[in-house]
Amino acid sequence: MFESLSDRLERSFKILKGQGRITEINIAETTKEIRKALIDADVSYNIAKEFTNSVKEKAIGMNVINAVSPNQLMVKITYDELIALMGSQAVDINLKGSPAIILMAGLQGSGKTTHSAKLANLLKTKRGKKPLLVACDVYRPAAIDQLQVLGQQIGVEVYSEPENKKPVEIAKNAVRHAKEYGYDVVIIDTAGRLAVDEEMMNEIGNIKEAVNPQEILFVVDAMTGQDAVNTAKAFNDKLNFDGVILTKLDGDTRGGAALTIRKVTEKPIKFVGMGEKMEALDVFHPDRMAERILGMGDIRSFVERAQEQFDDEEAAKLSKKLAKNQFDFNDFNQQIQQIKKMGNVKDLMGMIPGMGKIIRNMDIDDDVFKSVEVMIQSMTPEERANPDIINGSRRKRIANGSGRDIQDVNRLIKQFDDIRKVMKAVNNGSGKTKGMMRAMKARGRR
Prior knowledge:
The protein has three domains: 3-86, Up-down Bundle (Four Helix Bundle (Hemerythrin (Met), subunit A)), CATH 1.20.120; 100-296, P-loop containing nucleotide triphosphate hydrolases (Rossmann fold); 302-444, Orthogonal Bundle (434 Repressor (Amino-terminal Domain)), CATH 1.10.260. 57% of the residues lie in helices and 9% in strands. It is built from 21 helices and eight strands. The protein has helices at 3-14, 24-40, 45-59, 70-86, 112-127, 143-154, 167-181, 198-211, 226-239, 256-265, 286-293, 299-308, 312-323, 329-341, 345-350, 355-359, 370-377, 381-385, 392-402, 406-427, 431-444; strands at residues 100-106, 131-136, 158-159, 185-190, 215-221, 243-247, 269-273, 281-283. The protein has an eight-stranded mixed sheet, sandwiched between helices. The longest helix is centred in the C-terminal third of the chain and has 22 residues, at 406-427. The two termini are 24 Å apart. Mean pLDDT is 78; it is low at 430-446.
């Protein structure tokens, strides 16, 4: 995500290295490179020029104070401008109403149905809501079936009328159903459409008029770049939507849509899709996105995801086991499952400051833990509970049972022993270690 843009911006800042002060001459070359980087990321020329003019205006002639070098100062100014460009702060979804009605709109193939389910899952698991999904796409083959499968996957009811081909009627009936059965959020998945398709645009306008939604969300594929921004503007002119869900932001996207959609539509990005799993929907934070674009990582989101999987009772049990040196392969496997729930492994590593550049060209499979899990599953219950009894013959049996080499099993046990030592040290650690952990948690709650 934004890898090319990050590289280009980093190179532009290096122009100022060794300079004692920002001047008209050295800032001109830097802002020229920043403008090129933005245009290459599919930001429109006018917005890129406006952005760099603002950066130049704030930077020109500024003295370097408190040991801050010109290139560090330039990073800070660019960071602030990126945040402003993307909307300054996170904007929450409007859930007022009994029930709150959310209308999903977007182009064909933008991921609208999938993200309707992702949003329902987020509201259910993180906001304690009881959502109802509504299948109003009566045109795309299997659209209703797809939503029902996703609904079953996340444990959310899907309202549908397979024989009814009138989306306005279905939407109105679904709202009545929600009121009758105590649902507090209704998410209406509509048919994908082209902005130039007047008939289809009128249809979604009629749904809006019939159910009077509290929130209209436009779902757009980030990989379509500046075309996504132009489409969003056309939809906004027709629907006056409330916010954007930007999908496929974990893909090979240049980032132009994320950077400029707020500027063009004057509507906030509220959520971003960062993967295929139902949990892969995040609230959009402009400051955190700016940090990632500039290669600073995103430790706050990392800590938040970890906290979502953090169970106080299980943590207390684990702490006691570590104190008694009883950490075993059952505990190790449980930690792996928690990490997997946090999301895409490469995306997670990219949130750690300094790691983004290191892993950029690495092929990190989401099944990176699979071989470890297979080897653990090939152990007997006794071996998982008592790792120290795993001798040479047992290792050979585990290797054969998991289809791995004996060297793989030896490596796993060595890694397990190292992790056990580190975790015990942290658990019994100094005030400095515990203070650091408290600070990370506090930062994650900001």
